[in-house]
Amino acid sequence: MDKNKREEIVQAVSEKIEAEKDLLTELDSAIGDGDHGINMARGAKAVMEKLPSLIEKDTGALLKGIGMAIVSSVGGASGPLYGTAFMKAGDALKGKEEPSAEDFLAAFSAAIAGIKMRGKSTTGEKTMLDALCPAESAMREAIEAKKSPKEILQAAAAAAEKGAEETTNILATKGRASYLGERSIGHRDPGAVSSAFMLRAMADAI
Ligand code: ADP
Ligand code: MG
To answer: Which of 33, 111, 118, 138 is most buried, by the most CB atoms less than 10 A from its CB?
Structure first.
């Protein structure tokens, strides 16, 4: 992947976040404190500001730089969690000049492991993990079936969208939504929805 393509993908993800800012905030207003769209947009802006200094680097260093931009600009739960995810993915790709699909899967798995560690969380708790973990499985299946990079990301995005939809029925046991107990049921998790948006933007852009 050349640097122009990488830049296009990062930009597409940032634009998607900006475009969906109000929806993300609305979702977080229902079961949280109504700042998820604001947090995500702040992170996207910080990434775009830092992008010119990152784009000459390889994919691993780019992802790590994105994670650091997010961690240093976004508060709340999602900033450290997404920031850690991107930094772990970057570490996993360190030194890989031409990362393969398997390398990207390993990086995605490292990102998820980072979120689980940092958030002390797992699937079934109504978080971003309920979108990201199905996406990881779909990615693995698509790679085993020798699909193209675009098809692999499309499969991941579709699985994340389905997972995000299904968070509606989950009782939140992590994050702010857990304070609502039973009342968290009936709403999608904002972080699961933002994860699905990012994967969809990548799939469209690649
Ligand atoms: P805050 O909850 O601090 O206001 P945000 O609103 O930006 O931060 O992010 C909320 C999202 O973060 C949730 O929708 C959920 O997906 C995710 N989240 C919160 N806590 C955790 C956790 N422990 N593990 C994984 N994801 C979490
Ligand atoms: Mg919030």
So the answer is: 111
Ligand 2 centre distance from Cα of residue 57 (Å): 32
- Give the DSSP letter of residue 139: H
Domain spans of the chain, in order of start: 3-205
Question: Is the Cβ atom of 192 under 6 angstroms away from ligand 1?
Answer: yes
Pocket test for ligand 1, best of 42, 176, 180, 188 (most atoms within 8 A of CB): 176
Question: Using a 6 Å cutoff on CB, does residue 32 contact ligand 1?
Answer: yes
Contact present, 95 and 61 (Cβ < 8 Å):
no
Sites in the chain below the pLDDT cut of 50? none
Q: What is the pLDDT of residue 1?
A: 77
CATH of the structural domain 3-205, one choice from 1.20.120.10, 1.20.120.790, 3.20.20.150, 1.25.40.340: 1.25.40.340
